[in-house]
């Protein structure tokens, strides 16, 4: 009966001719067929959690949301027929945005997958709506093979890259089930046009000069093109694919180690998207051609995170991120997330193990999920990432807890007590990582890759007590900086640095390439682009001293990460309530945690305020960001000492 249903669905729905070339704002014509499409029924009974294979539990939330998503596909007798309405995925949720169409791969999977819990295999109503959705997707394609995203006439690298992946997955599923053969032919033709456009070395909309920007997008396009060519081989396009893979390896990775997002570092995109696309590319090519790149990336990422000693997870170099900051990463994460496909690299790149939950923890979570009597919750519009179900067939490789613990101990901040590591990108970006016996510090100097990066000092961590200071990205109120009366900060400027062996006042100037040889006191000086703030810091064994002069009155701003059981005391003896607005006229403050005390001393009496924010850390919200602000006039010296 099931086979007959599939065959009947194919015969009924394959009469539409191949999709016409699309036009700018909305598809240019009413597609073949008319009248309302049949509605897809919700599962007759709630899914039985015990029927799902552990790695496929992530499908469950999509299963119970599928009918609502598919029934929002436009079935009017207009040019919008097939548009995925409802705002289920990507913004703007507009008819011209091809990225709203990406769930065709999700629908194709449910239409063709044989599982005891999947009632949608061979469902004629789902097939009809998928057919309309694919037709709409193809009609949005420009004549040159690209798709739009943010404007009707845009030729979007991202929309085209991800279309290559999602449409090739859709084609693979439909062909395997012998469904919609004429629609499959239209997908095949569209993929060939898109592959030709995307792999063209002269296409500067994809291959952006000497640097491959937004590395996740070219990686996605290469993976999608590889799958498309595996389905429909073409020797000329295959040669172009291999040429572009080599170009990606040479131009998408900074000499510092990160993959460009867009022209700077971004921990979240490198982990959440690019690594997953690289694994797909390896799978489709049948060879780990970018493994050296992954190893260099892992080596870089090790410097950007620190572990909290209580095992809560990692805190990362958020202020230096040029796109999407990852403030923290829980040690045990929820199962439905995109990042975890990258875990397949842990066996060959063991240092990546710190970024994924231990296998034992994931297995325990899945056992608890299967045993839960609660109904599987549906997903809300906007929270239906199609990459998550698309990742599942590519496998996983969570590290054993023992291997993850080894990787944690190998993090530079944990493994060593003393080093100076300066990673410089040719665009004059300086990423500084300094370990001294009392602390670990992360900082950014030089030319900011864009306006969201906050320059200067970014993170201060203690090996026994964890993170004390953590600057935010894209904010003048949460960065570690000097604040001017207009609200601007030196963190929102390029900071031209000079490095010194010893104090800035009399220490020998050290060239950037030799900073790694400085193992004792390291001094750094900097000036803002407009010259309104001049600063320096001396990094010593037990702490650091910041000196700042300004052309107008300035405020020392310190984003403190506080636990509920921290003891915060103003110099003079009065204790400050953690999590509450508090102020004092004093010369300093101390934060005590687990036998470790950070003393912040500004030397002269000033009206200091400690203001809690809404940002918390980790799933248990066990830490909260509170910002210390101390007005210090036009010259200040502030010491940070651990004891």
How would you summarize what this structure contains?
This protein is α+β, with helices and mostly antiparallel strands. Helices cover 29% and strands 24% of the residues.
What CATH calls the topology of the domain at 412-642 is Beta-galactosidase, Chain A, domain 5
Count of individual helical segments: 14
Low-confidence stretches: 1-30
Number of strands: 19
Structural class: alpha+beta
How many whole angstroms does the radius of gyration measure? 27 Å
What's the topology here?
Blueprint: H1 2-13, H2 59-71, H3 104-112, H4 124-139, H5 157-176, H6 181-199, H7 216-231, H8 235-251, H9 267-285, H10 291-301, E1 305-307, E2 313-316, E3 328-330, H11 359-371, H12 387-391, H13 401-410, H14 412-415, E4 419-425, E5 429-436, E6 439-446, E7 456-462, E8 466-470, E9 481-483, E10 495-501, E11 508-510, E12 522-528, E13 533-539, E14 543-563, E15 567-570, E16 575-576, E17 582-593, E18 596-617, E19 623-642
Antiparallel strand pairs: 1-2, 2-3, 4-5, 5-6, 6-7, 7-8, 9-14, 10-11, 10-12, 12-13, 13-14, 14-19, 15-16, 15-17, 17-18, 18-19
Helix pairs in contact: 1-4, 3-4, 3-5, 4-6, 5-6, 5-7, 6-7, 7-8, 7-9
């Amino acid at each position: 009966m099931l086979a007959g249903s599939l065959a009947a669905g194919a015969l009924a729905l394959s009469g539409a001719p191949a999709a016409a070339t699309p036009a700018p704002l909305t598809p240019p014509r009413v597609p073949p067929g008319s009248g309302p499409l049949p509605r897809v029924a919700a599962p007759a009974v709630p899914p039985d959690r015990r029927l799902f294979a552990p790695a496929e539990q992530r499908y469950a939330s999509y299963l119970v949301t599928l009918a609502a998503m598919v029934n929002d596909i436009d079935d009017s007798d207009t040019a919008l027929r097939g548009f995925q309405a409802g705002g289920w995925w990507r913004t703007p949720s507009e008819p011209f945005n091809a990225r709203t169409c990406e769930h065709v791969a999700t629908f194709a999977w449910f239409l063709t997958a044989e599982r005891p819990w999947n009632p949608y295999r061979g469902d004629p109503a789902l097939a009809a709506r998928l057919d309309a959705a694919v037709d709409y997707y193809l009609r949005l394609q420009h004549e040159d093979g690209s798709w739009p995203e943010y404007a009707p006439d845009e030729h979007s690298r991202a929309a085209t890259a991800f279309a290559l992946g999602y449409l090739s997955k859709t084609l693979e599923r439909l062909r395997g089930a012998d469904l919609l053969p004429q629609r499959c032919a239209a997908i095949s033709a569209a993929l060939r046009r898109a592959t030709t456009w995307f792999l063209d070395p002269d296409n500067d909309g994809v291959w952006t000069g000497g640097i491959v920007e937004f590395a996740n997008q070219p990686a996605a396009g290469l993976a999608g093109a590889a799958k498309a060519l595996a389905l429909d081989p073409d020797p000329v396009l295959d040669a172009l694919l291999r040429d572009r893979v080599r170009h990606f390896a040479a131009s998408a990775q900074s000499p510092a180690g990160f993959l460009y997002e867009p022209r700077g570092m971004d921990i979240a995109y490198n982990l959440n998207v690019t690594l997953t696309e690289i694994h797909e590319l390896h799978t489709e090519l049948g060879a780990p051609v970018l493994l050296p790149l992954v190893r260099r990336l892992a080596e870089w990422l090790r410097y950007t995170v620190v572990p909290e000693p209580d095992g809560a997870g990692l805190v990362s170099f958020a202020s230096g991120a040029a796109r999407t900051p990852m403030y923290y990463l829980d040690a045990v994460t929820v199962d439905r997330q995109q990042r975890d496909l990258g875990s397949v690299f842990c066996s060959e790149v063991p240092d990546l193990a710190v970024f994924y939950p231990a296998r034992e923890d994931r297995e325990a979570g899945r056992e608890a999920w299967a045993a839960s009597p609660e109904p599987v919750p549906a997903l809300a519009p906007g929270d239906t990432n199609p990459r998550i179900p698309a990742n599942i067939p590519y496998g996983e490789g969570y590290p054993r807890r023992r291997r993850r613990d080894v990787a944690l101990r190998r993090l530079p901040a944990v493994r060593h007590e003393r080093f100076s590591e300066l990673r410089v990108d040719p665009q004059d970006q300086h990423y500084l990582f300094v370990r001294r016996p009392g602390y670990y510090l992360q900082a950014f100097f030089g030319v900011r890759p864009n306006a969201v990066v906050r320059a200067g000092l970014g993170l201060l961590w203690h090996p026994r007590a964890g993170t004390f200071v953590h600057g935010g990205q894209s904010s003048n109120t949460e960065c570690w900086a000097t604040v001017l009366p207009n609200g601007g900060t030196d963190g929102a400027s390029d900071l031209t640095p000079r490095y010194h062996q010893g104090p800035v006042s009399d220490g020998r100037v050290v060239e950037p390439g030799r900073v790694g040889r400085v193992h004792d006191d390291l001094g750094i000086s900097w000036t803002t682009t407009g010259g309104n703030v001049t600063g320096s810091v001396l990094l010593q064994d037990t702490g650091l001293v910041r000196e700042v002069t300004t052309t107008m009155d300035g405020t020392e701003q310190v984003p403190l990460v506080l636990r509920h059981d921290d003891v915060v005391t103003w110099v003079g003896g009065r204790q400050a309530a953690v999590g509450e607005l508090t102020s004092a006229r004093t010369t300093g403050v101390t934060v005590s945690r687990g036998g470790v005390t950070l003393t912040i001393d500004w030397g002269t009496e000033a009206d200091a305020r400690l203001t809690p924010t809404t940002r918390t850390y980790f799933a248990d919200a066990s830490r909260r960001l509170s910002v210390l602000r101390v007005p210090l006039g036009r010259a200040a010296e502030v010491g940070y000492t651990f004891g």
